[in-house]
Amino acid sequence: MRAIGLTEYGGPEVLQVLELPDPVPGTGEVRIRVHAAAVNPADMLLRSGVTHERFEGRPGPYIPGMDAAGVVDAIGPDTETTLQPGDAVIALVRPYRTHGGAYAESIVVPAESVVPMPSGVDFAAASTLLMNALTARIGLDLLAIPPGGTVAVTGAAGAFGGYAVQLAKSDGLRVLADATPADTQLVSGLGADEVVARGDDVAGRFRALAPDGVDGLLDGAMLHELAVPAIRDDGGIAVIRGWAGPAGRGIRVHPVWVTESATDHARLLRLRDQAEAGDLTLRVADILPAAAAAQAHRRLAEGGVRGRLVLDFTA
Fold first, then answer.
1. Which residue intervals define the domain Enoyl reductase (ER) in the entry (predicted)?
2. Number of C-alpha atoms within 13 angstroms, CB side, residue 147?
3. What is the mean pLDDT of residues 80-104?
4. For tag attachment on the chain, is the N or C end more exposed, with fewer CB atoms within 10 Å?
5. What is the mean pLDDT of residues 129-154?
């Protein structure tokens, strides 16, 4: 099979087309013929070697990718699942496992990491859902803000931030969000109640709208300690990529590790249902042929991408 991967860490240029054996599903696993794989910042961390320790010394090649959409083409022995060959599905993929990530024509993943594709959307759009939406869902669940509470979202125009805004609104929360002037209409359209200018000093602008402080904050912009002043005493902050504080004033810091919930089938199915109902907006920035993965990584690194770049594996 064809895959996009690397044999040494580095910049986008290390990504190359590889010919690898077709993976074989084992017990509890399904094989998916991939049609589309979304490109996420986590893929760049893998490619650059920042997270190399997660391979536990295993030799390459290494295949990035955490989001895939495609068609089931094989089910492992003794696998309890309602999925059938031919089903259109989406999957949350853990690229540090032996089988590698989503940048491949065929992938093998646990059946619990796979759910039916939302109806009414194409493979490219479907591939943008699970990793970022699940990250936002985990963050909100860790913050545990009751309906009627107030949450702030930084990086609200991004994929994680956009899902965080929409999921928080579906939870009955008041949502404050940040955006550049060019993204204000986008973020408002996602459901934010108030939108303020983004920047390192955004905490003061959130405080102006919530003088007692917000109950919790989802930090998609990774502002960390710069965002903490927006939060009330004994509130919480959900962070990506592992910042651990301290935050002070009794504020709880909740690192979000999405791969730990990759087999949380109920959560994945709920996100799929919300996307099908239109409660979550699937945003595709552009579709590129799989062989142009290096170009996709360069574009993502340059910033300003709204929605997700998607690699097409059907050509």
1. 10-311
2. 3
3. 97
4. C
5. 98
Q: How far apart are CA 305 and CA 157, in angstroms?
A: 9
Same domain flag for 42 and 150? no
Q: Is residue 115 domain-shared with residue 90, that is, in the same domain?
A: yes
Q: Are residues 117 and 144 in the same domain?
A: no
Dihedral angle of Cα 10, 16, 21, 26, to the nearest 10 degrees: 50
For residue 241, what pLDDT is reported?
84
Give a yes or no: residue 275 inside a domain.
no
The verdict on 113 and 145 lying in the same domain is no
Number of domains in the chain: 2
- In this structure, is residue 273 part of a structural domain? no
User: Which band of pLDDT confidence, cut at 50, 70 and 90, is reported for residue 315?
Assistant: confident
Tens of pLDDT along 248-274? 999 999 999 999 999 999 999 999 999
CATH number at residue 6: 3.90.180.10
264 falls within a domain: no
Cis amide linkage into residue 211, ω under 30° from 0: no
Question: pLDDT > 70: what percent of the chain?
Answer: 100
Residue-number span of the structural domain to which 308 is assigned: 2-129+282-312
